Amino acid sequence: MTRALALVCTLSPSSDRSSSHLLAGQVMTELAALGVQGETVRVADHDIRPGIARDLGEGDDWPALWEKVMAADILLLATPIWLGHPSSLCQRVLERLNADISETDDQGRQLFTGKVGAVAVVGNEDGAHKVSADLFQGLNDLGFSLAPGAVTYWVGEAQQGTDYQDLDKTPEAVAGTTKTLAANAAHLAGLLRHTPYPPA
């Protein structure tokens, strides 16, 4: 069975509402409809130490999340836009994943080769393309594959305060993009499971 992991990189803990979590949940719902088993983790609920190492010692929660990443076929990074950038927690996730950028499997491929990366972005200003581009490059550098339409996003109008979670209903364009993201990611993950990349 194909497995997906959503790392929600809102700065808010699970006790707070989150637009990033909402959009990630919508992606995971679409994936579930395609038979993908999923888990969603709010990164802010965990002590993810700054640094570029797989394990930074006692109290570091990253090793447990790393195990979840390794067990997943699809990794979804969900982030708000802050000052035109992914959240600091999203950047930290990439930095911790970067500990394995030079690690390879027994066939010489990067550890994350064969896994599919995807992105969900929310914000109240324009910047979703820039944020997704940043995350795409990081995921690709690490060995993740990107399906066509590997991002779904919503941004509100400039200089106003409406959040995605406050909308009366999901805009059709966002719902359609989310559905396409899920379908393409699941399709690519299935292909890579049955036809892996060649040895490096």
TrEMBL record:
<dbReference type="InterPro" id="IPR029039">
    <property type="entry name" value="Flavoprotein-like_sf"/>
</dbReference>
<feature type="domain" description="NADPH-dependent FMN reductase-like">
    <location>
        <begin position="5"/>
        <end position="149"/>
    </location>
</feature>
<protein>
    <submittedName>
        <fullName>Flavodoxin</fullName>
    </submittedName>
</protein>
<dbReference type="Pfam" id="PF03358">
    <property type="entry name" value="FMN_red"/>
</dbReference>
<dbReference type="GO" id="GO:0016491">
    <property type="term" value="F:oxidoreductase activity"/>
</dbReference>
<dbReference type="InterPro" id="IPR005025">
    <property type="entry name" value="FMN_Rdtase-like_dom"/>
</dbReference>
